[in-house]
């Protein structure tokens, strides 16, 4: 067995990817775009324990590669989700333009969690975007999501932040980063709006 796969398998990730088995119109199977030089900035070990994951045996370099999308864990099925919604005052086709779902992890209590990488590269729904994220907004989302959780406000959680070793262009050049997000589900109201737009009752 590849040493990378062996080391990552010890974390305890256990996938059952029900969304990936839905009709193709609802998703696109796509891998993250590898980054130049991932470096781990934040690892939320408290959330890791809730997920039943043990990162103690994982080197910092391997953890950075995992959360950047450079390493693909066994059992994962990377997908971008399609959905619709209102943007700039118009109802339109949207979708995960800079986020890719790694898979649905089942913890030891058989609770299901979506594990998603945000800032992991272009998807079929990126339109003119680069699919990347800047470090500043990623850290802000990490802080705000965990603060909301501490206030008992249901929201996505933040598991890890890595820098990519690459610059991305916004108003100026900024350091790139990837945020690992965790949620009970990333299904949205816009998921059902998208199906309704397609008039596909079977998919619904």
Question: Topology, pairings included?
Answer:
Layout lengths: L2 H7 L17 E3 L9 E5 L1 H6 L9 H9 L10 E3 L2 E4 L2 E4 L5 E8 L5 E7 L14 E2 H16 L6 E13 L3 E11 L5 H10 L6
Antiparallel strand pairs: 1-3, 2-9, 4-5, 6-7, 7-10, 8-10, 9-10
Task: List the helices and strands in order.
Answer: HEEHHEEEEEEHEEH
- Specify the overall morphology: globular
Q: Overall pLDDT, averaged? A: 93
Helical run tally: 5
- Major sheet characteristics: 6 strands, antiparallel
Radius of gyration: 17 Å
Query: How many DSSP E strands?
Result: 10
In a nutshell, what does this entry contain?
The chain is α+β, with helices and mostly antiparallel strands and 204 residues long. It has five helices and ten strands.
Structural description of this entry:
The protein has 204 residues and is an alpha+beta fold. The protein is 24% helix and 29% strand. The protein contains five helices and ten strands. It has helices spanning 3-9, 45-50, 60-68, 135-150, 189-198; strands at 27-29, 39-43, 79-81, 84-87, 90-93, 99-106, 112-118, 133-134, 157-169, 173-183. Strands 2, 6, 7, 8, 9 and 10 form a six-stranded antiparallel sheet that branches. It starts with a helix and ends in a 6-residue tail after the last helix. The model has no long low-confidence stretch (mean pLDDT 93).
């Amino acid at each position: 067995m590849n040493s990378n796969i062996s080391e990552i398998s010890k974390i305890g990730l256990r996938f059952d990817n029900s969304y990936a088995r839905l009709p193709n119109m609802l998703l696109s199977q796509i891998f993250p775009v590898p980054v130049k030089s991932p470096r781990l900035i934040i690892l939320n070990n408290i959330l890791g324990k809730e997920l039943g994951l043990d990162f103690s045996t994982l080197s910092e370099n391997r953890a950075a590669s995992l959360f950047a999308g450079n390493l693909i864990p066994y059992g994962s099925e990377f997908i971008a989700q399609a959905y619709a919604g209102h943007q700039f005052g118009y109802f339109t086709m949207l979708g995960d333009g800079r986020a890719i779902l790694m898979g649905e992890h089942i913890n030891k209590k058989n609770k299901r969690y979506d594990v998603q990488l945000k800032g992991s590269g272009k998807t079929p729904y990126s339109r003119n975007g680069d699919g990347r994220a800047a470090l500043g907004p990623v850290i802000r989302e990490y802080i705000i999501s965990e603060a909301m959780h501490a206030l008992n406000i249901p929201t996505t959680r933040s598991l890890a932040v890595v820098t990519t070793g690459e610059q991305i262009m916004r108003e100026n050049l900024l350091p790139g980063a990837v945020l690992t997000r965790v949620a009970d589900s990333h299904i949205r109201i816009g998921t059902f709006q998208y199906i309704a737009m397609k008039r596909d009752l079977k998919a619904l």
